[in-house]
Amino acid sequence: MIRHMIFWNLAEENADRVETERFLKETFAAMVGAVPGLRAAHIGFDQWLGTHGVGLSCDLDSMEALAAYQDYPPHVAFKRWAKVHLKDRCCVDLEVAE
């Protein structure tokens, strides 16, 4: 299984965190079950101890599923949104035991 983790900071410090978190959770919840091989997606705000403000963790069946997820139209639309609203992206893809 692949654990795809991404971390960002908000591009605008005054962004509405409640609305942003709602949007992110709805966006990724809709992808689970729709993207082949995407098992789970968890997203939320840091609890004020980390180096980035927003985190996403997705569990996928394989690297092939991760590649399909990258090209999935709602994910492509999210990446366009993220370029405007998020910054300082950090990403890691880990192979983890099930």
UniProtKB/TrEMBL annotation:
Domain Stress-response A/B barrel: 2-94
Lineage top rank: taxon: Bacteria
InterPro entries per record: Dabb, Dimeric_a/b-barrel
SMART domains noted in UniProt: Dabb
Name of protein: Stress-response A/B barrel domain-containing protein
Protein's organism: Intestinimonas butyriciproducens
